[in-house]
Amino acid sequence: MARWLVTQGDRQFSASDLAELKELAKSGKVGPGDMVQPPGATDWLYASELPELKGLLRRSAAAYDEAPAESGGGVTLAIMGILAVLIVIAAGVFYHYATTIPGKDDLHLLGKDQGGLDLTEMLVTASPAQMRATPDNNGETVATVAKDSKVQLLGKRKGWYHIKASNAEGWVPVDAVVPAYFFADAATREDYDPIYNPDRYVFVKNSSWMQLPDQKRDKVTIFSFLIQNKSKFDMTDLTLLATIKDKDKKVLETKEIKIEGTIPAFDAAMVGTLSPDKKDKEGVKRFLTSNYFSELAAADETLNLRWAEGVEVKMESEGFIEANIDLLEVRAIPKKLDEK
Question: Which ranges in the chain belong to alpha helices (H)?
Answer without folding.
Answer: 18-26, 77-85, 91-94, 186-196, 213-217, 290-299
